[in-house]
């Protein structure tokens, strides 16, 4: 099994990174001999989508100039890495009610009509299928239940966008309340105990 671990927290003591590593460890224990590839979007961010990228994306592959091909390099790489994986472990810190811009940029680079999704008579169809996704979602507050649950735009967003690409088999593991004094100490052990692979 090939595991792709995507990191998007820039913090060395990150909860989402620690939780992601724990998910990877459990997967390795359950599937000995598996390989792990790590993509760190905090240390190696992908550029925001620029005009050259968009022009190239809408140009048929056979008509692209070398410069246009180069503009798609990050996207091609990100898609290839994901296609080669059987399992995606996705670290997602909760930032300002959404995800870090680096993670959003990675997702933008993954969404390519005709490559990762297509439109059919029956509606849109995701083309990245047969993979399992584990989201290691860290948040200062609590969004799984209670009054803040309506402000959880992260898990629904990831389900919608990655599901649109065909990644519909998704488990969200939460380390939450990391900024709540009475929850902070137990947040990570509780999250780790809830991992099911
Ligand atoms: C820029 C920034 C924005 C944040 N926004 C939110 C937020 O909207 N809601 C929340 O509950 N926590 C928020 N937090 C707290 C983080 O979600 C929390 O510290 C989490 O553990 C960060 O993930 P990490 O430990 O993997 O870095 C924010 C933290 C930062 C640094």
From TrEMBL:
This is FMN dependent NADH:quinone oxidoreductase. It catalyses: N,N-dimethyl-1,4-phenylenediamine + anthranilate + 2 NAD(+) = 2-(4-dimethylaminophenyl)diazenylbenzoate + 2 NADH + 2 H(+); 2 a quinone + NADH + H(+) = 2 a 1,4-benzosemiquinone + NAD(+). Homodimer. Its EC number is 1.6.5.-, 1.7.1.17. The keyword Flavoprotein applies. It is an enzyme of class 1 (oxidoreductase). The keyword Flavoprotein applies. FMN binds at residues 9, 14-16, 138-141. The gene is azoR. Binds 1 FMN per subunit. Residues 1-195 form the Flavodoxin-like fold domain. Quinone reductase that provides resistance to thiol-specific stress caused by electrophilic quinones. InterPro entries: Flavodoxin_fold, Flavoprotein-like_sf, FMN-dep_NADH:Q_OxRdtase_AzoR1, NADH:quinone_OxRdtase_FMN_depd. Its cofactor is FMN.
